[in-house]
Amino acid sequence: MSSLNRGVSKVEVALKWDPSPRGGPPHDLDIVAATFTADAPTVPAYLVHFGSRSPDGTITLDRESRTGQGFGDDEEMTLELDRLGSGYVRVVVGVAIQQRDGHRTFGEIANPAVRIMEGYTELAEQDLTGLADATAATVAEFTREPSGSWLFRPSVRGFPDTDPQSFGARMGA
Q: Is the pTM of this model over 0.85?
């Protein structure tokens, strides 16, 4: 853990998992970021997921995988918190499993893990297999201090029976 008293400014969230067994339907995990305002601290102002980006370009999904194939990270999202409009006071980041081909949980996916970095400093790394019954999970929360700096807090919480669409509405609670 780095010294976070100075705040965080630009963060990368990286997600990885192993492909499904040969012949099985692909496992598709997605990084989701929800932004919140002071007026509505639990209702997302907007979501970034599935290859989208924030309206102002401060949160972008840089790499997306629908199978987990390849080496290294399968999905990456960049959050430029220092450029995020002053009306936003909270950003929650999570991971959701697409449920197209039946019900899947993190316990059924090989080696799901998320890493959060600021530059070369690792802020957190989380193996998601501990959330075996969950179909989605929050992994991080960033909050804006009155001074304007952003603070990071690991926030690992599993959600059973949640698809990516409904997860966005629930992740800020």
A: yes
